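Hey, resending since the last one bounced:
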Amino acid sequence: MISKLEFGPFRLDAAKRVLWRNGRIVALPPKALDLLVALVEQGGDVVTKEELMRRVWPETFVEEANLSVNVSALRKALGDQAGGGPYIETVSRRGYRFAGLEPKAPARPALPTLAVLPFIPLSHGKDDAYLGAGLADALITRLGGTGHVVVLPTSAVLRYAERDPREAGRELQVDAVLEGKVQRRGARLRVTVQLLPRPRPSTRT
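The structure tokens again:
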């Protein structure tokens, strides 16, 4: 059962049977308020006229016109939603539904995290150390722009050059570490890379 609900400029306290609009109480006939609560509690599902009449007028015989009158009073008090359309919708030959509940956006799955370590130079030219860091930086920029993975910035990984990649992964608390090696042969470069998942803690006791 919904006890409190906010929609548009309104706030409904179902337990106390009070409806506010922008902080002011909305004057509603008691049965119209009961009708609103009955619709809201169904979370946007269609409620048949028969079910509404049983909820709003329990153990009492009333004509369907009473339901129509209270629906009309409720619509008049609520007005239309900001995007247009009534808060109370008529579903032909079925009943009514409360249309003021905004659908929740599906939760986004957490993106995996990745650390790209400076590539280790296998040759020993004076510029090779800078080459390894430059290749890692370029890869960080490219992978970070895909939107499919969170890549740590270059400044966070520079001190892990030539460190054990799995140890680096544990300290950086990322899901995986990418390590690479680069070798210069004349005007050609040979690059090898390896993706290593972070070891999971042992569950053994």
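The mean pLDDT is 86.

Sorry for the duplicate.
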